[in-house]
Amino acid sequence: MNSDSSANRDYATISPSAKVLLLMKGHTGIPFAREAARLISLPDHFIPDFERKDFGYWARVVHFESRYQQVNALLADIQPSHILELSSGFSFRGLQLSTEQEVHFIDTDLPDLIAAKRPLLEALQAGLPEAKGKLEMQPLNALHETDFRAITDRFAPGPLTIINEGLLMYLNTEEKKQLCAIIRNVLQERGGYWITADIYLKDEARFAGLLPKDELQQFLEAHRIDDNKFDSLEAAADFFRGEGFEIDREAEPDFGSTDALQYLVASAPAELLEQLQNGGRRIQATWRLKLAE
Ligand SMILES: C[S@@+](CC[C@H](N)C(=O)[O-])C[C@H]1O[C@@H](n2cnc3c(N)ncnc32)[C@H](O)[C@@H]1O
């Protein structure tokens, strides 16, 4: 069942952010990102600009590379054999994991995005060794329970791990609750986990003036994502507890393991770097959630 607000909303207006993210990730070590950025830019040439001296830009790139790694870290210690990624955008985690591991991975996003992603996937798959696992790519509006169920029914019986990054800040509280209810129902039946990197905290003041007034920033402001962020980690934990989830584990960010950190350091004013090193307030967390007992 869809609430009226989600049934009437055009979620495809969020999809352009996925391409912006891919072009940024083309400057990181995320598997397939540079090649996918090249493919999506055709007929133009994607030329990564590592000389760019722009602290706010590199801070974002490091953040997105780290966020991707945080989800992977929480997957690695449970080694799930069934993974469903929601709102995957132009991310190719499913390609990487299914190539290397015996996993059934279903990669999903809205229909138009999946249609645009399919040729990229085919191009990236050409020349790879035979996959150890199985990868499917399917259109899915994550707020449509019937469609969601049709996707989860594609997995063999057994626990399921659902993952997402970069979605919850586009959903208002009602929509977040709707998604929680769908995931809760699925996990109640099958067992498993929900890994979400979307524990973003409201923090406008700290970054005011720091982030570039670029296309992404204008997009985020137009979508009023700050309104959809959590007031604090405690408020986020309370929200998920109210929806029947508890935190199983929190990822530990390791910015030192990102490729992009070197470019951030090269473009950072000394006082800003010091501020960062002395541990500013967290703006985001990645949690592995399980059903509350
Ligand atoms: C900021 S992008 C993040 C993409 C990717 N996860 C990443 O981190 O690179 C947000 C994605 O959410 C998708 N999206 C928005 N609303 C959605 C919905 N209701 N169901 C599924 N995906 C949705 C968009 O199409 C877009 O790809």
UniProtKB/TrEMBL annotation:
Keywords: Methyltransferase, Transferase
A molecular function GO annotation: methyltransferase activity
Keyword Translocase: no
Any one Pfam family match given in the protein's UniProt record, by short name: LCM
InterPro entries hit by this protein: Ppm1/Ppm2/Tcmp, SAM-dependent_MTases_sf
Keyword Transferase: yes
GO annotation terms (biological process): methylation
Protein name, as recorded: Leucine carboxyl methyltransferase
